[in-house]
Amino acid sequence: MRFVFVGEPCDFPFEKLLGRRRRAKYRLRGFRAVRTNLKGSGLTGSDLATLVNERLDLVASVSVGQNGSAGRFEYANLVPPNGESQVKWEISKFSDLGRLNVNLEQEINDIEQSLRRAFLKNGGKENREGVILVGFSTKFRYLAEKSLDELNSLALSAEKVVLDKMVQIRKNIDPRYLVGRGKLREIVLHAKHLGADTIIFDTELTPAQANAIGGESGLDIMDRSQLIIQIFAKHAKTNEGKIQARLAEYQYNLPRLKGKGTTFSQLGGGIGTRGPGEKKLEQERRNIRKQIEQLEKQIDGLCRRREHTRKNRKTSKIPTLSFIGYTNVGKSTLFNRLTKSSIVTQDKLFSTLNPTTRRVMLPGGKHVLMTDTVGFISKLPKELINAFRATLEEIGEADLLLHVADASDPEVREKIDSVMKIVESMEFEYIPSILVFNKLDQADAETEAALREAFPKVPLVSAKNGKGFSKLLSYIEKVVAEEIGDDAKAGDFNPEGRLEDTVPSPLLHSPF
User: Are residues 360 and 411 in the same domain?
Assistant: First the structure.
């Protein structure tokens, strides 16, 4: 296929001719762009950006002499990503087009093979989505990098392949492109050079930003909230979990609907009329609103059934303990060992979505009800908090919150604080909480000693090997017997193990 463009120098309109999708992650587009150049300036920055953006076989420039004959010739081709090297192309120059003696077919085939090897070497997989993660902050780089590490864990939980991570620090947020147009173009070039399918931003993009960035990049765009919602939808196995995840998806997507191409053209037949695209878009909005309304009714039904179940528990006067904690701290593993249950546990974020309640007999013979709940995370999307209210209400009815933290996590204090902020945002801060450190088997001796010094009253356990369990059960029994009792209300609880009494300030200065 051949195209000839006549006119002033401009960017090649490949998007209109070829569409926006490439043939494969590491394949070239199968097109070569040759530009005639009357001024003899050779390849421009725009030419080279087009080479990377469109993954062309090559871009070339032919200088035209005064008599119209071909003069100097130069072409550029992609080079494979190579660690820290920022080189994306290689330029070959010839003083005379007639002296060109290159087997371009073989050279292009060799380039594709090298791109494939580099793609696989960098961790890419042919059947998995490759992503670039972008951290952003208006404050400090280290905060953005810490948050980006968590985004990396989220991406892995969503079974995506992280090809690279980038961070941008700006004094102000760009209202259209978040990171600024210049930085965005740099990110897009890097993403396409690596063969990425998607760019994931470690913040929530406004609908306008998501549309503008998607239009500028030609790649799929996600933000942190969308990624978390996607993970919830992926991990939802029960009907209840699927309803809640679907509701969160609809609530997130509703304000982000937009028209695309001529199908959503807003051109009408006259003044005051609506075009076919606008009508179609409004119809989709109405359908989503109807779906949201139906799902919310189902959630309300779940809430009523849970309320009935909780009332039955209250009549039995058995104390209830709800597990809370940052995601992936081992809550479900701890719950399984304490209750002899078999809830699915994985070394992934949000592996547990639905609350599960089991009766446990304490060492003295008394019983308590323990409930495992979904893990928390910083910057939890508001759509998820709303959709999972049936699950979160289970926490609100507990007599005691068992806050599980990861003893091996160097950022344990920050994550404890994140959990408590979410508890406060749900107005459950009135419920007494006790703290327990899990994953003792993964903590080194120095960290364990620091924890025991900073938290002398807090149990340290390992759900994996059962270490510390007898002390934990005895501690729970003591708190329940002395402070809650059979008839005590949660509001009367004020034990030495209350969370605010077990998270002292020395942790801020501890070596972890």
Answer: yes
- The reply to whether the predicted model has a pTM over 0.85 is no
Would you call 239 exposed, middle or buried from its count of C-beta atoms within 10 A (0-12, 13-18, 19+)? exposed
CA dihedral 191, 192, 196, 202 (to 10 degrees): 30
Domain end position, chosen among 93, 121, 149 = 121
- Could you tell me if 103 and 148 lie in one domain? no
Listed residue (308, 291, 234) closest to 257, CA to CA: 291
* One-letter-per-residue 3-state SS of 193-247: HHCCCEEEECCCCCHHHHHHHHHHHCCEEEEHHHHHHHHHHHHCCCHHHHHHHHH
Residue 173 has pLDDT above 90, yes or no: yes
Counted residue by residue, the chain has a size of 512
**Spatial separation of the C-alpha atoms in residues 439 and 459, rounded to whole Å:** 12
Has residue 205 been placed in a domain? yes
User: Which domain does 213 fall in, by range?
Assistant: 130-231
Residues 408 and 357 in one domain: yes
Dump pLDDT digits (tens) for 272-281: 445 555 678 8
**82 & 138 share domain:** no
Task: Work out how many domains the chain is built from and give that number.
Answer: 3
Burial class (CB in 10 A: 0-12, 13-18, 19+), 350: buried
Do 117 and 171 share a structural domain? no
Residues whose CB is less than 8 angstroms from the CB of residue 110 and which lie 6 or more positions away in sequence, other chains included: none
DSSP string across 24-62: SSS---S-EEEEEESS-----HHHHHHHHHHT-SEEEEE
Exposed / middle / buried, residue 179 (Cβ in 10 Å: 0-12, 13-18, 19+): buried
Query: 331-350: per-residue pLDDT in tens?
Result: 888 988 888 876 555 555 55
Query: Which pLDDT belongs to residue 311?
Result: 67
Residue 310: inside a domain, yes or no? no
Q: Are both 340 and 476 inside the same structural domain?
A: yes
